[in-house]
Specification:
The structure holds 2 protein chains of 2 kinds. Chain A is an all-alpha fold. Chain A is built from 2 helices and no strands. Chain A has a domain of 46 residues. In chain B, the strands form 3 sheets. Chain B has an 11-stranded mixed beta sheet with strand order 1-3-2-6-8-7-14-15-11-9-10, sandwiched between helices. Classes of the chains: A mainly alpha, B alpha/beta.
Chain lengths: 68, 468
Amino acid sequence: MSELIVTKDDVDALARYAGLPLSDERKQAILPILQSWVPAANELNRRMAQDEVREQLPCTIFAFGNRG
Amino acid sequence: MDLQELTLAQAAAAVKKKEVSPVELVEACLDRIEAVNGKTSAYISVFADQAVQVARASEAMMMAGHDLGALHGVPLSLKDNVSLKGQRTTAGSKVLADWHPDEDATVARRLRSAGAVFVGKCNMHEFAWGGTSDNPHYGAVRNPWNTDKFPAGSSGGSGVAVAARSCYGSIGTDTGGSIRLPSAVNGIVGIRPTYGRVSNHGIIPLAWSMDTAGPMTRTVEDCAIMFNVIAGHDHRDPVSSQQPVEDYTRDLRLDLKGLRVGVVPGYFFSHLQPAVHDAVRGALKKLEELGAVVIDVPIANIEGNISAQLTVESVEPSAYHQKWLRERPGDYGEDVRALLETGELLLATHYVQAQRYRALLRQEFLEAFKRVDVFICPTLPFTATDVGAMKVVIENGQEEDMLSAIMQFTGVPSLTGLPSLNVPCGFDQQGLPVGMQIIGKPFDERTLFRVGAQFEGATEFHKRAPGI
């Protein structure tokens, strides 16, 4: 699978969806972080979508009577 | 008596025997802060007059036969994201530059109740979101072993304050490694407790599902003494555990014969600077000499933990900071602002899959703990880098991003909620400290202190002092 490369247009769209006003300078500042993190996060997404972990629940921070 | 060279345990014992006054201890710490804080920027606030006043009262109470507890008259510091009633608590930020909480954090209240005297609040990475303590508002914290080097973070000020002998212990907070990393890089001891073992009430959060608080000290015994004071259920923290507490000093002198030490093959000793590799391998050999048995224990899904860590540790703070980030974006330092903006743009599925991965990794470690008592690995793969560096070279001359690189080993306990203890285990060729991380079963901090204390007793690394 060819890996996504995050672009400045992607940052622009995501920031609009998030309601986060970002100047061009701010978009440029976070672009390299997203370019590094998103492919790794997508790789983890693919792993966690496999059949063998289909039943895996997410961890939560509810602690009812924790005697753990 | 050289007061600055006393351990916390020795200082507390000397006060109880009336061999030394709390006033003398506090004045020794304040003198030391005066001498070194200009070079290290370890403290944001120093309570010189108030600490002396409290120490005088503490002395009077001891002389009158009123012993407040294990820390009576002992000077300590707090990371500046831990609330102290009436005292400025900034979290290393401009956003909270003038915030004065109206109550103590639970950890501060418990320490105070046990007789501790607070001498100041320590500098840190802004809002604890980073591993360098290069703070744009209160100055870059500098390592006492070499002030051109960083102290790691985010509890960098606490690590430096303890290593530089300006207090007998400090409280740090640890989300992705922020107690263990500065403990390793400054050559001291620090514990990240089991998630929920120590109350987070009154501590400014970073990432709720991973946040913890714990002691940073010069010796393992000191760490266990402080841990005894702060551990335990707190109804004001909704995730505080009801698991009963233990005496964490009880097993410090118990030998290691037959103790099973796990190592994850292919992960725990790969991608390291040679000095770190050699020091931690040497530590394992020493533990074997002490009677421990080292066992390879594979963890099938250990790869991927850094991505999960970055996702959770960025998304949760971005939720907490959402209002301030829109109203006062210019009040954040550049690196933290960029991380908070980034955290808003990751997808919900990235976050949930990271949380599912955490549960999977935790199950694999709990299963592995049927075969071993502890795991041991380096705390971080490199020794202190230059102040201000955003990249680090670990092997093959290749530069890597600091934030990802620094979490290589500390992310595992953070994601799984397991306790872990940093203990000094060597020095590199420049004389910079190396730390090893001992990871334990949930609520088994006592075994971590036992292993750390036995190793410490058989080595000299903790006895070296920085030359500052």
